[in-house]
Amino acid sequence: MHVPDGFINAPVSAGTGVVAAAAVAVSLRGARRELGGGPGEAGERTAPLAGLVAAFIFAVQMLNFPVAAGTSGHLLGGALAAILVGPYTGVLCVSVVLLLQGVLFADGGLTALGTNITDMGVVTVLVAYAVFRALLRVLPRRRSMVTGASFVAALVSVPAAAVAFTAVYALGGTTDVALGKVFGAMVGVHVLIGIGEAAITAATVGAVVAVRPDLVYAARDRLAVRLELRPSPLSADPEAAPRPAPAAAPVAARRRSTRPLWVTGLVVTLLCAGGLSFYASSSPDGLEKVAADNGIDKKEQQHAAEDSPLADYGVEDIADSRLSGGLAGVIGVGATLAVGSGVFVVLRRRRAGTAPAEAAATAPSAPSGAER
């Protein structure tokens, strides 16, 4: 659903750019809390995963899957990011992916970057996170319910993004097209794409839940395993038995290394981008198909980065298409991982630096000598 240059006029593109910039600014602040900054905090587990989540979204977006005759779809990733690393960090993950795709791979217009971040990042993250958390409140407290809730949240987020694009097009579309046709076509095809998004999201979340449930940010309160010590029925004095220690298991979970999961995730990400991407569907994605069928693309402009050596997900001057595409995918994963991880490390360190000051500001002051 990458919107190219020329679909939306300049004033509305500028407006969505302001919305996107504000969302990123708010997310930078909110992500500092999600990523944490001190020993024992939840961010100790979230921070190492956030850069990998961005790289994984980039890689899986290269795997277009067929959804109808002559139409394909790909992961948007907002639901996956929101569930695994939190809504603020999720917006940043998707924003990093979209920025690098536009600058390095000429995918998604540069003047439409604000539109794409607003649509594919902010809308999908907010909708998916809200649906996921609402479902967790009413579903039984079981791990399988977390996977099911992630499926529904991802499924809903994709047509929600299609509705958002239609609204933006109604405000600033550059061609005269009946909005009813655009709405029906966009929502119809993206419901089908949403099924693929939901399957990928649920499979990924389910895999993480199976091995490290403490790393699923949006369900951490539901998946926390608490250790309770009960008095033995053979004890002579039950009152003297040890009291429950509910915090024992979470502390142990915090100290577990994320390295095995991180390495496994990186290997899967590189395989997707460097190998499986060669077998992706070559059919146009949902937006491209709707645009071609309804004349939305009549005023599409050439991409400003069309001369990039990585444009169209291939390395310039490498004739072998499999090698060219695979190498471009690996380069993209590396760039996304480096930029994403760099952003999240900086945010985490800033949070670590401000945490002592915040604690000192809220701590009660010591009594003065005159008050003693």
From TrEMBL:
This protein's record includes keyword Transmembrane: yes
Family annotation (Pfam families): CbiM (PF01891), PDGLE (PF13190)
Domain PDGLE: 260-349
Membrane topology listed for this record: Multi-pass membrane protein
Keywords: Cell membrane, Membrane, Transmembrane, Transmembrane helix, Transport
Residue ranges of the TM segments: 7-28, 48-67, 79-100, 120-139, 151-171, 183-211, 261-280, 327-347
Subcellular location field: Cell membrane
Keyword Transmembrane helix belongs to the record: yes
UniProt-listed InterPro entries: CbiM/NikMN, PDGLE_dom
Gene3D superfamilies given in the database record: 1.10.1760.20
Main location group: membrane
Name of this protein: Energy-coupling factor ABC transporter permease
Natural source organism: Streptomyces oryzae
